[in-house]
Amino acid sequence: MGGADKDAEGGVGAGRANEVLAGLLARAGWTPENLGDRLNKLAVTQRLGLHSHRRSPRRWVYAEPGRLAPRVPREPWPSLVCHVLHERLGEVITPEELGWSSTGSQLRYVPADQGLDQAWTAGGAVQALADVVDAGGMDRRHFLALSGITLTSAAHEWLGDPARIASALAGKRIGHDVVDDLERVAETKRHLDDALGGGTLLPSVREDLRLVVAMLRNASYTEQVGRRLYAVAAELGRLAGWSAYDSNDHAVAQRYWLAALRAAHTSGDRAAGANILGFMSVQSAPTDRPRDAVLLAESALRVEQHLTPAVAALLHSRLAFAAARTGDEPGWRRAQNRAETLFSRSVSADEPAWVYWFTEAELEGVAGTSLLEFGRPAEAEPHLRRAVMLIDPSFARDRAMWLSDLAAARVGSGAVEHACATASEAAALMRRLESPRDQLRLARFRRAAAPFATTSAVREFDSRYRDLLSRSVASM
Fold first, then answer.
1. Which one, of 260, 311, 226, lies nearest residue 154 by Cα?
2. Could you tell me the residue ranges of all domains in the chain?
3. How far is the C-alpha of 391 from the C-alpha of 112, rounded, in Å?
4. Euclidean distance between CA atoms 449 and 471, whole angstroms
């Protein structure tokens, strides 16, 4: 999409340069062309279907010969410029600050954390949770996934001490029995996610969360009940974020997690908050900024002394994969060994209910996938084979994921027919799931098999699963 400028003078008044934009670029260490490259990269990674010439921003900074002022970019470029500068500098920047007057309509493209700057208090947690379940607001905006300091700063804010929860709010009084019911609802939804994938689950979890938000706003309860209620809200927000992520809706996932982190903070449940940061780390690891994933996992582990062995092992496993994505093999090995040691000390009865899914199969799978990241498929295969062997059959989505990675390891070792048989088993599972994220892993296997595209095994795989492959490519 070209035509990035308005043919009008006076976006910043008479003069030869947009001094505000020039100053921000200087602070960012960018030239106008660097800004153009960042904008086009953002458009690709966010799948916006937009493109502008990399030199276009020069005309937004400096007036061309015969013009009194620099050009003003057309929508949606002003909001995208503000977003990339926000990512780089860690501060909110608006089109108005750049001298680009608003058209009067709400910006379509906004950062995932827009409107989530509430205080880390009970009231702030309720407001943040309410904002992310407001479907009407989401319909009017296109959220842009965060990275860098704008994402990892949430981890540092969460580490602060939680504010005291008010002992009662106006409305019907609720007790522990109501929270018990809500916790059972959350447990049921977790197991449905294991079997079905997140794509079908998000609307249901959103409504569960909406109910809890209404209780937090309107009911009265003791402080102890209130803490449990906020913890349930945090878990439902985490699950809603995971469902959105599983559907490849990364920015909406971040909104749920950022709001859930506030609820966890208010509940005083350090393990719940650390778990949310762990999921944020998982999301960040496959991006072009895997260092974000390392920082998020390390922030979660800042409270390791408050965590049970399995929860701490889970977070070290998150750190291990993040380290592998950065190419840090010593860091990966340290974190992987620590995860295995801690997990061996865990006692199921003493662990939170929500960590049930973190098993030896998960540890083996992460080890294998990490070795794939290091380009060692032969070493990865036995770990991934054990992950598939150990995983509970009810974990259909995770089984499909490890099968896809095992297929990639096998094709990397040259066992093409065996790899295609494994990938076919994964694909057959995926047909029963709603997990676009798993389908992306299948597409990665197929890219690894590209050198063998003319073999009968790969041709047969393509013929049988062309529909899954085309859907996964379309969602990338």
1. 260
2. 5-111, 116-268, 359-476
3. 34
4. 18
- Determine the Cα–Cα distance for residues 71 and 62; give it in Å rounded to an integer: 8
Q: 264: number of CA atoms within 13 Å, CB side? A: 27
Q: How far is CA 443 from CA 48, 117, 237, 416, in A?
A: 21, 37, 29, 15
Which pLDDT band, with edges at 50, 70 and 90, does 148 fall under?
A: low
What stretches of 247-304 show up as alpha helix (H) in DSSP? 250-267, 270-284, 290-300
Give 47's contacts (C-beta < 8 A, 6+ positions apart): none
Nearest to 166 by CA among 233, 127, 217: 217
Q: What is the tens place of the pLDDT at every residue in 290-335? A: 899 999 999 999 999 999 999 999 999 999 999 999 999 999 999 9
In the chain, % of residues over pLDDT 70: 84
What does the pLDDT average to over 117-140? 71
Q: Which two tokens stand for residue 370?
A: 């990490």
What does the pLDDT read at residue 300? 96
Per-residue pLDDT tens over the stretch 238-280: 999 999 888 888 888 999 999 999 999 999 999 999 999 999 9
**pLDDT bucket at 38, cuts 50 / 70 / 90:** confident
The pair of three-digit structure tokens given for residue 378, joined into one six-digit string = 């032969």
The answer to whether 434 and 397 are in contact (CB under 8 A) is: no
> Helix or strand or coil: residue 198?
helix
- Tokens 């492959």, residue located: 469
Tell me, what's the pLDDT at 93?
82
Residue pair 154/261 in contact (Cβ under 8 Å)? The answer is yes
Angle between helices 149-158 and 270-284 (to 10 degrees): 170
Which of 314, 293, 294 minimizes the C-alpha distance to 363? 314
* Architecture field, domain 359-476: Alpha Horseshoe (1.25)
Element (H, E) at 476: none
CA-angle at 69, arms to 63 and 71, nearest 5°: 75
